[in-house]
Amino acid sequence: MSKYLIFEDFAFKDRRLLLGALAELGYREVEEGGALALFGYQGDQRPETAQIVVRRRFLGSASNDLGFVRTADGYAPIVSEYDQRTLHSGAFLVKLRTAYSEAVIEEVKRRLHGAAHRTVEGDRIRITVRY
Amino acid sequence: MPEIQFTINPSTGQLETHITGVAGPSCDDIAKLVRELLGQPARETETAEYRLQPQVRLQVHPGQPR
Hints:
By secondary structure, chain A is of the alpha+beta class.
């Protein structure tokens, strides 16, 4: 049985942008609720609950449910040790944060009625929003 | 022209934000919007430009009461 880990440093502030970032990574089917139960890969209910859940059938055959619990800083991911190692070759949280960052920039551009210019410099993505 | 420069580090997912061309309180409004979506930043610094007073030019149109 894989232990669940809560990543409070990775909290995502905006629910709608988080859902968009999850969709960007291919997880369009999510459940939302007050305190949804999380289940392990054998169907065993875990003590942890979450407000946003991606069920394990959308992740991998040996995966556990993936959750996001609402905290004062935003929605913190609850990921099992197994999925942390295997989802997106162990880069799931980094990829989700990158997708979320891009969603934030798009939202800022939209709210300011601005225009964006994107460049890649070395290993960095630079996006300039003018308004 | 005001602009916001965002830099994403894809190997960590971290985002850096640099606001230019906006002085003082207007800059705070943009920073507030970014904080609303990203949360409290790990680090926040004011540039010299931030401390400049915004230049306000009054335009008087003919026929308008003063």
